[in-house]
Amino acid sequence: AAPFEITSTTAGTYTLVIRPAAGAIGSGGFAIRVVDRRLATDADRAVQQARTLAVGASRLEDAGKLDDARVQLERALALGESAQGPNSPFVMVLVFDLAANALDRPDNTRADLLLQRALTVLDATVGPDDPFDAVVRSRLAILYSRLGQRPKADAYARQANQVFEQTLGTK
Fold first, then answer.
1. Which pLDDT score, from 0 to 100, does residue 155 have?
2. pLDDT score of 2
3. Considering Cα of 153, then 157, then 160, then 162, what sign does the dihedral take?
4. What distances in angstroms separate CA 131 from CA 12, 48, 74, one per listed residue?
């Protein structure tokens, strides 16, 4: 179960619509539980704005506008860091998204810096056996393969595959 927060910009009654993600296979189960209702803080609003920017960046990437997406992701990251600090799980997702954008542009140096940042924080917070940590390692494997650094690429790929197999199984 993944917690999710929603921050409104104005007071009022809202409707929450849930539908399958694009490409979802089969139906899934979910539960909604309201844990807390309170006035939003400046940090809450900053995180909500960062989420909105990240969604917009994803749409820009889908449209092939990678540089415009990068600008939005950088703004989202700055907001996330100011609201939650540099090492929060939310910020690590933004760092990863910015790294993926750098891989796609391609800006290999920036991708490496961002992926190494994410890996350092994830290793210290969730550990190397976490699936998100493994996804970061798999992206590093792609990057180092692209750069012709096979031994580094192979090491990251092996580490990532080990976690994927433990998490998902081998079949």
1. 96
2. 60
3. negative
4. 38, 25, 24
Q: Which amino acid is at 61?
A: E
Quick check: 57 and 101 in contact, CB under 8 A? yes
Q: What is the DSSP letter of 41?
A: P
H, E, C per residue of the chain: CCCCCCCCCCCCCCCCCCCCCCCCCCCCCCCCCCCCCCCCCHHHHHHHHHHHHHHHHHHHHHCCCHHHHHHHHHHHHHHHHHHHCCCCHHHHHHHHHHHHHHHHCCCHHHHHHHHHHHHHHHHHHCCCCCHHHHHHHHHHHHHHHHCCCHHHHHHHHHHHHHHHHHHHCCC
Q: What is the pLDDT of residues 35-58, one digit of tens each?
A: 778 888 899 999 999 999 999 999
Which pLDDT does position 13 carry in this prediction?
81
Listed as ranges, residues in the chain with pLDDT below 70 are 1-4, 27-28, 171
